User: Fold these one by one.
Assistant:
Number 1:
Amino acid sequence: MKHALFVCLLSGILACPGFSQSSVDGKNYGDSRNENLRNCFAGLRACDLSALRSDQAKQIADMRHDQTLWKCLDEYGECDHSLLNPSEVKEVSELERQRNLLSCQTGHGLCNSQSLSSTETREASDVEHQRNILACKTGNMVIVMLRC
């Protein structure tokens, strides 16, 4: 689903006339502009946003915003909350809270138990206790040595 959304965004941007090569009387010009546009699209430092048309600059800014939101939602890459709007910050924060709770409940990943509510802490502790009992019964030595 996530990859499909990115592919759709990418296809839309590439198909947009604002990203096509300009020509006058059948002659191509603006190769440096097209190269700059490619640099901006690729996120390279050689991108000069001021050299883009306003519609192109807006599309690049929208794409970068979407990429930032994507990084925050899928936890791959660094998430900069300051680049998100308030509703996105709320959505991302809730997703991060849910991921942390799941990590605490399953014992997989990093668990920040201090960010859990007292009820969630109790539930996570109960689940950990049940996992430990099961490990002791089944002879899972890694957990048994730590908890039994």
Note: The first strand starts at residue 23 and ends at 24.
Number 2:
Amino acid sequence: MDNGGFIMLTQKSHSENWKFQTRETQNFPDLCESLLTNIPNTRRREGQIKMLRTVAEILAGEREQKYLAVEGGTGVGKSFGYLLPATLHAVLTGRRVIVATGTKNLQEQLYEKDAPMLAGLVGNITGKNPTIAILLGKYNYLCQEALMRRIKSLVDLGCDLTDVEERELDFLREGSPE
């Protein structure tokens, strides 16, 4: 089972609550679209822009709906369609934005490529750089209690641990809190 995790975007300084100054005629969805269409080496995708504007409108409180489900094929630009308004919203409001992924591959793409690029873009125009953190699902961590139960059951069955396994277990025991 491929359990994804979360990407969290937040403003570095939570104490600051500031408003980004834009042209009077430019609202949040327009600003997001303007940023998206001016990213170097990207092409304009109508589906991506429609998604980005919808996400931006929801985040800006311009729609009654609070949730959105979007489906699209590979190459539509879904990641930028939700990450750009989410990143800009996090910086402008000082609030955290959490993005849940269904796969580790998508989580890695967002964390290693898309989120840092968009965070840099948002940081350049606002002067505020968001922090990006990765939060892994619970299946990515070792439960020491479960490990000890498993070892006990193996020992009870008469299984002997090799020297390498003993050293690995010692390492795990030393490196984790009691």
Note: The chain has six helices and three strands.
Number 3:
Amino acid sequence: MLISTEQRYFRQYTLHKYALFSTLDTKNILLLIINQIKMKKSPTNAPACSVDYAFRRIGGKYKGRIIWYLHSHDNLLRYGAFRRIMKDITPKMLTQTLRELEDDQLISRTVYHEVPPKVEYSLTATGKELVPLIDHLRQWGDRQIEREKQRLTSPDSTLTIP
């Protein structure tokens, strides 16, 4: 069976890669895997437009609320305060969302090395730029909730079944 040059180089690379893994500890192996995954991200994930870019940063169920709660609580909250305020979010999802906001540089995380550990979150300058937009969304939501209440409580509203 003849093997092409490409296949031979691929096999050598693969064997070399696994030989390299055999000499590394678990932490370094995980770092190599993570770096390979990051390198595989294609440019096709680039935002289609600026609206797409913005919604990738603040879209989702919790990001806008986290930014708003930070703003309304004097720009400083600890992890436990988020847990008390946002009762409908799991600890895993809260941690993940906070990390994403930190990666997008919308919030900053300050760790105090003390016992028990203390971590505080605050809005960055970029995050503060979003507050007027989120406030506008909040006002719109308040108006829509009020309209919905009026519609449901008005005497002429009838339930029609199609």
Note: The radius of gyration is 25 Å.
